[in-house]
Amino acid sequence: MKNLILLLCILAGLFSCKAQDIKTSVKKTKVFLLAGQSNMDGRAKPTGLSEIDKQRLKKAQKNVTLYYNFDEGNPLDTTKVAKHTAQKFGADYLFGPELFFGINMSEKYPYHQIILIKRSRGGMSLYGAWNPDWTLEKATLIKEEHQPKLYGEFVAYGQKVLMTLEKDSYELCGMLWVQGESDSGKKGGLKPREAYQENLIKLIGQVRTDFNKPKLPFLMFQVGRGKVVEAMRSVSKLDANVLLIPQETHKNSKFYFEKNPPPTGHYVTSAMKKIGEYFFDFYEQSFSSN
User: Fold this and answer.
1) Residue 240, CA distances (Å) to 173, 180, 235 in order
2) What is the distance between the alpha carbons of residues 40 and 42, in angstroms, rounded to a whole number?
């Protein structure tokens, strides 16, 4: 009888240790926020993906979920675009930086669930639709008074997704931003360009406040020109948790990104793949704790 009791105690201890091992081996879900205008939304054709790219994507779909513009979340994949965009680019499905950022994250962290929450819309400025301090006057100046208030939508969408997760089951790892072309253009005159640095600092600070992450890493891809690019460079120097992926015009540069010729514009498949990979590389080199 004593031997039986001893055996049961040993087995109970083993089961307890095993349960503890399982509990401690559970990895926190990694969450990233993505936002911007058309080059974040993505205008790259999946027809340019290699068979190896497709195989990598299929594997990534096991642990990477993309929440895109208010949908309920789906395994990482290309996304269906509006009819006018499909006609312009000759494809019903396109992709942005999230595809290869997600693939690389999946390969680096195969035992983590990874969630990408993306709100994007082509042609929208930080001065107007993306401004955390939206006003009708600002939106009207840049002809976005009838466009959605993107910053508010982005926060509401992100918080809604996070509310579906248990409080201690995830970590908010960073934000990816591709926007600046609209503020660099002629709409609104000089004000959007001159205010870009102030508005960018405001955006970063407000995101960190709204998602309760004071030092949230913020990664930008350099788009736009003139004062907008100067602002991006300046902010990345002022804040250690802000990084800028540069862009150069020399075709032999590793930071050269090929675009479709006018009037289509936007980045070709190989360039968008590289943008997503750079987002991953820059994040890993500076912010990964593993």
Assistant:
1) 15, 21, 9
2) 5
58 three-state secondary structure: helix
Is 76 inside a domain boundary? yes
Note the residue count of the chain.
Answer: 290
Give me the chain's average pLDDT, please.
92
- Kind of pairing between the strands at 218-221 and 74-75: unpaired
- Measured CA distances, 120 to 78, 148, 192, 240 (Å): 14, 11, 19, 25
pLDDT tens digit string along 219-253?
999 999 999 999 999 999 999 999 999 999 999 99
The torsion angles phi and psi of 70, rounded to 5 degrees, stand at: 80, 5
Q: Residue 129 sits in a domain of what CATH number?
A: 3.40.50.1110
Whether residue 177 is contained in a domain is answered as yes
Q: How much is the pTM?
A: 0.90
Does some domain include residue 222?
yes
Q: Is residue 134 part of a domain?
A: yes
